[in-house]
Design brief:
The chain is mainly alpha-helical. The protein is built from 20 helices and four strands. It has one domain. About 65% of the residues lie in helices and about 5% in strands. This is Guanine permease.
């Protein structure tokens, strides 16, 4: 390893190795590779060409990961965000009957605004204004959120019309694949085996193939589909953003991506131990990286790009530098040609990893001052709100709206940063916009 590489990525300083960083990048990619197949399916429902979306998803993710790795030097991966892609397809295109080309123009305009407010450091100021207790709550809330995703994807938790959620059926064979992976990964983690989460996923995939619970892929290689149906569509249809309804759509794209990414970056930075004096070093470069990726994604032809909570899987196996994100980005590029092989990584394979990572991130709960109710209440609403609303931004909103109120009630209103008061009103408007028509 060259001295320049070591110095730039602070490999020795962060007590890591190139091998560990590459392993972490593999782990993160495997945890989030599903987006290559989920995003085309979701946007395809809106009439967007699935093949083009597959390639756009891979390239936008790769661009974001590379930028995050090279510029910000963080082990944080980016990709088209779940939730906002569903809003794009089902609410905007299908619900509002807006052509997908116009909706893509909305994403492009939101991306431009996103980039401008990042350049003027508004996003950086907001992240730094969030108090440390709420940042720990964000990290813990994301942990519970992704653990809940893992439990659901693995079949251990299912919808129940009487109790909202309930225990899954143990008569489903694939659920036992999740249980096997969870027990094995838990044992490896307790025994402190390096790369335990990654080993658990590989072992679970092998067991799934041997038991035929996971079908063997018919091919190993496949050509990347053409981008022609989606490339530049959003730019060409900017003139369609000419109504109040469309500007509400643009604002929604902007706000959801803004707060989802802010919450995710803070949570992951807490998990990795990057926070110093309640501030995230190089946060401006991290925000610029994901803003640029969102703009690139809108040109390529996909829904908004943002930081991914699944990056926590790579951080959990020791990823601490930008080499982790760069590795993930390279794998996204290769993934365009090895798409048949990625079908081996089913939700039952990634579920145990997400559950274990949830445990690791929940450790931040210990740092919250639970003895002060003015802190405990908004922190609790964030922690509980994220998994129960199935949204990082909604959970964050519950806590941020409550925080100034409880601090004023405790006669500590002067301790609240002015931006937190501003966020109080922003989030009230944010919640009102999201609930229009519900």
């Amino acid at each position: 390893m060259s001295e320049k590489l070591n110095h730039y990525f602070m490999i020795d300083e962060l007590h890591t190795t190139v091998r560990r960083e590459i392993l972490a990048g593999f782990t993160t990619f495997i945890s989030m590779a599903y987006i290559l197949f989920v995003n085309p399916s979701v946007l395809g429902a809106a009439g967007v060409d699935k093949g083009a979306v597959f390639t756009a998803t891979a390239l936008a993710s790769a661009i974001g990961c590379m930028l995050m790795g090279v510029l910000a030097r963080y082990p944080i991966a980016t990709a088209p965000a779940l939730g906002i892609n569903a809003f794009f397809a089902y609410s905007v295109v299908i619900g509002m009957k807006i052509p997908w080309q116009t909706a893509m123009a909305g994403v492009f305009v939101a991306s431009l605004i996103f980039l401008v407010i990042t350049i003027f450091k508004l996003r950086e100021m907001i992240i730094n204004a969030i108090p440390s207790d709420l940042k720990y709550a964000i990290s813990s809330g994301i942990g519970l959120f992704i653990a809940f995703i893992g439990l659901h994807d693995g079949g251990l938790i299912v919808a129940n019309k009487d109790t909202v959620v309930g225990l899954g059926s143990f008569s489903t064979a694939t659920t036992w694949l999740t249980i096997f992976g969870l027990i094995l990964t838990a044992i490896l983690m307790v025994m402190r085996v390096p790369g335990g989460i990654f080993i658990g996923m590989v072992a679970t995939s092998i067991v799934g193939l041997v038991t035929k619970l996971i079908p063997l892929p018919e091919h190993l290689l496949a050509g990347a589909p053409s981008l022609a149906p989606t490339f530049g569509v959003g730019v060409r249809h900017m003139g369609d953003i000419n109504s109040l309804q469309m500007w509400v759509v643009v604002l929604t794209f902007l706000l959801v991506t803004f707060f989802d990414t802010a919450g995710t970056l803070v949570g992951l930075a807490q998990q990795a131990g990057f926070m110093k004096n309640n501030q995230m070093p190089r946060v401006g470069k991290a925000l610029m990286s994901d803003s640029t990726a969102m703009l690139a994604g809108s040109v390529l032809g996909t829904s908004p790009v943002g930081a991914y909570v699944e990056s926590s899987a790579g951080i959990a196996v020791g990823g601490r530098t930008g080499l982790t994100a760069i590795t993930t980005g390279v794998l996204f590029v290769l993934g365009m040609f090895f798409s048949p092989l990625l079908t081996v990584v089913t939700s039952q394979v990634t579920a145990p990893a997400l559950i274990i990572v949830g445990v690791l991130m929940a450790q931040s709960l210990a740092h919250i001052n639970w003895t002060k109710m003015e802190i405990a209440i908004p922190s609790f609403l964030i922690v509980l709100g994220m998994p129960l609303t199935y949204s990082i931004s909604d959970g964050l909103a519950l806590g941020v709206i409550t925080y100034p109120i409880t601090m004023i009630a405790a006669k500590r209103g002067r301790e609240v940063h002015p931006l937190m008061y501003a966020l109080f009103f922003v989030f009230i408007g944010f919640m009102a916009i999201l609930n229009v028509g519900k």
